[in-house]
Design goal:
CATH superfamily of the largest domain in chain B: MetI-like
Shape of chain A: globular
CATH topology of the largest domain in chain B: MetI-like fold
Distance between the termini of chain A: 40 Å
Helix content of chain B: 55-70%
Number of strands of chain B: 0
Number of strands of chain A: 25
CATH architecture of one domain in chain A: 3-Layer(aba) Sandwich
CATH superfamily of one domain in chain A: P-loop containing nucleotide triphosphate hydrolases
Structural class of chain B: mainly alpha
Number of helices of chain B: 13
Structural class of chain A: alpha/beta
Number of helices of chain A: 20
Largest sheet of chain B: none
Oligomer: heterodimer
CATH topology of one domain in chain A: Rossmann fold
């Protein structure tokens, strides 16, 4: 077959807002051939999801309209009557959404939800549909599919749920699967599993995939052809390998250059800023090397030893404690002024809890946190408030961490006034100063958080954290929610601030490529424990622990040439940190592989995973 | 930062501050990806250089002081604005009414019983020939005062109980909620009877006949109306206290009191305002019920509810008798509800008006 399966010509989509139509997709054209994977890639607001929703006619009917043509097997999807379109949806074209937590109905069993589509589109009986559902769950490699058919979605992990969603999408053997950021909400190892699964299913079923993502690494991993979108326009389209080899458009080049690449830091002694490529001219700005921020003779600014945090799980009639989440278990590390220590690991590994326990936003159960030699965990409330000036936090979601009813100027001035570091006039002056420092204009102080873009909000959060002149900043996934190019800028800002102010960062992240860029040292966490810690070069160059290796192997590499070079990943799930009340954590031993590089001695339970991770 | 970033003059920076554009996102995106819903707002963020050197966005033009901004936003809510005028007219009417319409409320005239509206009696008369307009003016003072005062009592008690329960991590929270449930489960009318028989005489001695009944009714209605507010506030607090901006303020050294007053309470007020306006209307109606049962104000003191209940036996022959107090209650309740809506929107900086 040479005719494209889907031929989108000059697609435009407008939304009505306050009576005026506003076009957000301006004439996008692309084709998807049978059995082909096409990636629509772009940053938030580029119109990639809206384009896909318009194709499925899932945009709100009263307040949106689409123009152009979208020929699917010769029929124009945009002109089909609604009844015909309903038959196409979920049958010939299926969709997978980003959030596996919300795309399944929590009050229906997964078996019913998969069977639903089959009964609707294929007219199968209940029994036949359920038998087919079991087959589909097997296809997406859900263990013990038959027995799990009548389970509710909450009994599955995020990765498993996404498999169920994919099984639902595959139920009617669609010719085209539209996957809208299907792996964005998942951990890297789970993301790698889902991508593998999608690829093999595509080969078996012979379907085409329209893959929407913001992640160039994922694009390199999966797409045959790529369409780069920006501002609702397709700025560049072509063979994925060709785009990665030599992109034509400056924006594509800018996008590619700001994608952190694992392994790009080999041989660099210190953290390095991201190069910034102009989106209009394509001119590259190579970052000058940062000065050495470490003074080796210093006593560590922060010394954490034996930190343990547990959460009680209550249940039953009288709220008895029935179990405990061992979120952080006997974690020790130290951090010097001007140094960045990264805590990496997947969701649920306790890295955020560690950061919050250090600031005592969560009360740890045991251990000590010495800030400048003083134990933060033993301070009374007033002394703690006083000492918190020395350590501040930058949160993951800049929007959630700013009070929506407070102007950013007030938000930044608040810690100054709270800690009586100055009167109102001084606070105003310092606010203007801080805004300028983080690259914003001082007269933005009167605006509310919702009037800023994501990257600007994170700058505001950084300014607020700097207001009390802290020496330690806990950055909890601070750049994870940002678009790649913005992420690069915020990382650059943090590095510059470290160089000029001598800040110590506890950088909590799941993104290995960013971590490689910013860290002096790296600690890998798994199930609440540090399994490996050492200088950045040692962790990335010579990882020892099987989990570290697995983590590094799962990171998508933004280089189509290296596709498939990776070994197959196991379908292992991260184990559960919930323990019985009488659980005694095993004694852990660490061995030093090279100066400063320690690794936990692992037991037999890691051995089976080893060949897969190698 | 700015030094290392090449300028990109062609990027359309105005998007960053254009509220209409920012407000665009939810409808299409709710069906699909989070990235777009967060992201359309962050469209401008997609460009390097932008965050570093954003010049003044047009949004700056309409920046006002805090109170001015709230008034600007409130005045964009047309129904709320109209309601302010309606309510103001009602309040002015009952306050200035006796001056403009100096007819006695107890001027019995058997020659003019159950008359419809006329020049002598604009709202007609009741079965004793008393002038309804004068009685409405007098009754309106009591009804409005009872409604507002009872709302204040209910809201203050509800806010206190709700925020204590919402902030407590120990035994206090469940305890307060048990008390709330207990109050919700109480049979209210028998309780009202009991309270009124117990305390009426004592209060009358202290505050006088009318004052005593007023204080009693306000306390009884407010004291039995705070539970929904408390539950609302607690629910809001439970979710707000875990929000990152609260945690951020805590990590900057804010005391619990500061967190509650500056961050949690202002964000919890929206639903409370709406609940408060509903409380005003239900208090006006509850007062009517009490008057009807003979437990409120003495029968010779007219309130809107009392007039309405007196009128019920003559609905077929003297419709006007029920119509005017009914209309007054209706207009009051409706306008207060709209004002509540407008206030909620005006106080919410995120909402685009």
């Amino acid at each position: 077959m040479t005719a494209p399966l889907l031929d989108v010509q000059n697609l435009t989509t407008s939304f009505r807002r306050d009576g005026a139509w506003r076009e957000v997709v301006h004439g996008v054209s692309f084709t998807v051939n049978p059995r082909e994977t096409v990636a629509l890639v772009g940053e938030s607001g580029s119109g990639k999801s809206v384009s896909a929703l318009s194709l499925m006619r899932l945009t709100p009917r009263d307040s949106s309209r689409s123009g152009g043509r979208a020929l699917f097997e010769g029929r124009d999807l945009l002109a089909l009557p609604e009844a015909e379109m309903r038959k196409v949806r979920g049958d010939a074209i299926a969709m997978v959404f980003q959030e596996p937590m919300t795309s399944l109905n929590p009050v229906l069993t997964i078996g019913f939800q998969i069977a639903e589509g089959l009964m609707l589109h294929r007219g199968l009986t209940r029994d036949a549909a359920e038998a087919e559902a079991v087959r589909l769950l097997d296809r997406v490699r859900i263990p013990a599919a038959r027995s799990r058919l009548h389970d509710y979605p909450h009994r599955f992990s995020g990765g498993m749920r996404q498999r169920v969603v994919i099984a639902m999408a595959l139920a009617c053997r669609p010719k085209l699967l539209i996957a809208d950021e299907p792996t964005t909400a998942l951990d890297v190892t789970v993301q790698a599993q889902i991508l593998d699964l999608l690829k093999s299913l595509q080969d078996q079923e012979g379907m085409a995939v329209l893959f929407i993502t913001h992640d160039m690494g994922v694009v390199a991993e999966i797409a045959d052809r790529t369409v780069v979108m920006r501002h609702g326009r397709a700025v560049e389209a072509g063979d994925t390998a060709a785009i990665f080899r030599g992109a034509e458009h400056p924006y594509t080049r800018a996008l590619l250059s700001s994608v952190p690449r694992l392994g790009s830091m080999a041989g660099e002694p210190r953290p390095l800023r991201f190069p910034i490529v102009s989106t209009t001219t394509g001119a590259v700005d190579v970052p000058p090397a940062l000065p050495d921020t470490l003074k080796p003779a210093d006593r560590p600014l922060l010394q954490v030893s034996g930190l343990t945090t547990r959460f009680d799980i209550r249940g039953g009639l009288f709220g008895r404690t029935r179990g405990r989440v061992h979120a952080v278990e006997n974690v020790s590390f130290d951090l010097r002024a001007g140094e960045t220590l990264s805590l990496v690991g997947e969701s649920g590994c306790g890295k955020s809890t560690t950061g919050r326990s250090v600031l005592r936003l969560i009360e740890p159960a045991a251990g000590s946190v010495l800030l400048d030699g003083e134990d933060v965990l033993k301070l009374g409330p007033a002394a703690l408030r006083e000492r918190r000036k020395g350590m501040q936090m930058i949160f993951q979601d800049p929007f959630a961490s700013l009070d929506p009813r407070m102007t950013v100027g007030k938000a930044i001035a608040e810690p100054i006034l709270l800690n009586r570091l100055g009167n109102r006039a001084e606070a105003r002056e310092r606010t203007a100063d801080l805004l300028a420092r983080v690259g914003l204009s001082p007269d933005m102080a009167g605006r509310f958080p919702h009037e800023f873009s994501g990257g600007q909000r994170q700058r505001v959060c950084i300014a607020r954290a700097l207001a009390v002149r802290p020496r330690l900043i806990v950055a909890d996934e601070s750049v994870s929610a940002l678009d790649v190019s913005v992420k690069a800028q915020v990382v650059n800002l943090m590095l510059e601030l470290q160089a000029s102010l001598g800040l110590a960062f506890l950088f909590i992240s799941h993104d290995m490529a960013v971590v490689e860029r910013v860290s002096h040292r790296v600690a890998v966490m798994y199930l609440g424990e540090i399994v490996e810690m050492g200088p950045r070069a040692a962790i990335f160059g010579a990882p020892q622990h099987p989990y570290t290796r697995r983590l590094l192997a799962a990171v998508p590499v933004p280089d189509p040439a290296r596709r498939g070079a990776r070994a197959a990943l196991s379908v292992d799930e991260i184990r559960n940190p919930i323990r019985a009340l009488d659980y005694l954590p095993p004694e852990r031993r660490y061995r030093e592989v090279s100066p400063g590089h320690v690794v936990q001695v692992w037991g037999e339970d890691w051995e089976p995973a080893r060949p897969a991770a190698a | 930062m700015a030094g290392s970033t090449p300028a990109s003059p062609s990027v359309d920076l105005t998007v960053a501050g254009d509220p209409a554009f920012l407000g665009l996102d939810p409808s299409p995106a709710s069906a699909g990806s989070h990235l777009v819903s967060d992201g359309t707002a962050a469209l401008a963020a997609a460009y390097p250089a932008l965050a570093a050197a954003v010049p003044d966005a047009p949004a700056v033009d309409r920046r006002r002081s805090g109170a001015g901004e709230v008034w600007f936003r409130f005045s964009r809510h047309r129904l709320a604005l109209a309601s302010v005028f309606v309510l103001a007219a009602l309040v002015l009417g009952v306050v200035l009414g006796p001056v403009l319409w100096p007819t006695a409320i107890d001027d019995i005239d058997f020659s003019a019983m159950l008359q419809g509206p006329s020049a002598a009696h604009p709202f007609g008369t009741d079965d004793l020939g008393q002038d309804l307009l004068a009685r409405m003016i007098y009754g309106g003072r009591i009804s409005l005062a009872v409604g507002v005062a009872a709302m204040l009592v209910a809201t203050v008690v509800g806010l206190t109980v709700g925020s204590l329960a919402g902030m407590s991590r120990g035994a206090l929270g469940p305890l307060l909620m048990w008390v709330t449930d207990l109050f919700l489960a109480l049979p209210q009318l028998p309780l009202l009877l009991l309270l009124i028989y117990l305390f009426r005489d004592a209060l009358k001695r202290v505050f006088g006949v009318e004052g005593g009944v007023f204080v009693m009714i306000v306390l009884v209605i407010g004291g039995l109306g705070w539970m929904p507010v408390a539950r609302l506030v607690r629910a809001q607090f439970l979710s707000l206290r875990e929000k990152e901006f609260v945690e951020a303020a805590r990590s900057q050294g804010g005391t619990t009191l500061h967190l509650v007053l500056r961050h949690i309470l202002p964000n919890a007020l929206g639903p409370v305002i709406v609940a408060g306006t509903i409380e005003v209307s239900s208090a006006i109606i509850a007062e009517s019920t009490l008057s009807f049962l003979g437990l409120g104000f003495p029968p010779d003191i007219p309130t809107w509810g009392r007039i309405l209940f007196d009128a019920k036996d003559h609905l077929d022959t003297a419709t006007h008798w029920a119509l005017f107090p009914g209309l007054a209650i209706f207009l009051t309740v409706l306008s207060i509800n709209f004002i509540g809506d407008g206030l909620r929107d005006a106080l919410d900086a995120r909402r685009v008006v």
